[in-house]
Amino acid sequence: MPTNAPSPELSASLEQGGTPTAFADATASDGALRRFLHGLPGIDPVGLEARAASLGTRSIKTSAKAYAIDLAISMIDLTTLEGADTPGKVRALAAKAVHPDPTDRTTPRTAAVCVYPDMVATAKEVLKGSDVKVASVATAFPAGRAALPVKLADVRDAVAAGADEIDMVIDRGAFLAGHYLKVYEEIAAVRAECGDKARLKVIFETGELSTYDNIRRASWLGMMAGADFIKTSTGKVAVNATPPNTLVLLEAVRDFRAQTGIQIGVKPAGGIRNTKEAIKFLVLVNETVGEDWLDNHWFRFGASSLLNDLLMQRQKLATGRYSGPDYVTVD
Questions:
Q1: Share of residues in the chain with pLDDT > 90 (%)
Q2: Residue 174: per-residue pLDDT
Q3: Of the candidates 116, 82, 81, 76, which has an alpha carbon nearest to the alpha carbon of residue 96?
Q4: What is the pTM of this model?
């Protein structure tokens, strides 16, 4: 399996934060970073949306569908991010991540459970001994509007509580105002705070970035600053993950690996609610970046309701009968 490490010939050319020194000049100043990001190839919105739509029409047969369902289950970050979250709710969610379908122990485990920092220890306790990761949103999620010391304290608390992954949200206001270096430096600071204890997912909130060109720029900015994953959305705005905006992220990680040798993960989040939609995203991955990304180390779904539909479709393929929502647990 590929890792986040670059090829040996590039390993000597990395900065301390994990950013290839090939980008050292581009990140030397706000002006240099602006020139680099605005020098990326422009995106044809019509062409992008047409390609995403065409890939979504691919026919998936029964045996391939069964494989895709299990793969999708294994890629889910089972998520609860509500003000009303309780320790009991988080424990139940963590237990479901380990045994998504208690009636069928062949069902894959989910990739992770994603919670607020104050619930990390609770989730970690339930998941002890399993390979399910604990992810924590941090950095003043979901708005990202806080001073950097506050954001870093948020990350530090989550990592200290045992978080395996940190999902940080960028300051979209700073990005849209053109303060790219500020955003870059915040991501790099969070990456440093994670150290070797937690992987970093960087959330762009693509629904607020207005254009596909901005999404591409944000993708490169996040990767250059040390992201292990780039992620579409918080799930807290009107427009979250879509095939076109996810395609932009996939093309970015493909091109970044071609240039640096470093592989970066992708996580569409929010709005993916059923099996049919999830399979469309898997086709998008396979056709854009290939099999190297068809693994939960490199691709995730940020979802809360998706798992139940996958379980119902899995049961239907196994039994020939559609069980319905009464036969899966309510999150």
A1: 81
A2: 95
A3: 76
A4: 0.91
The whole-number pLDDT of residue 272 equals 94
| 119-171 pLDDT, tens digit each | 999 999 999 999 999 999 999 999 989 999 999 999 999 999 999 999 999 99
Q: Tokens 């290839």 correspond to what residue?
A: 20
What length is written for the chain?
A: 331
The residues annotated with a catalytic role in the active site are: 167, 231, 267
Range 192-208 average pLDDT = 96
Structure tokens at 34: 């602006």
Residue 1, pLDDT > 90, answer no
* CB neighbour burial string for 204-239, b if at least 16 within 10 angstroms, e if fewer: bbbbbbeebbbbbbbbbbbbbbbbbbbbbbbbeeee
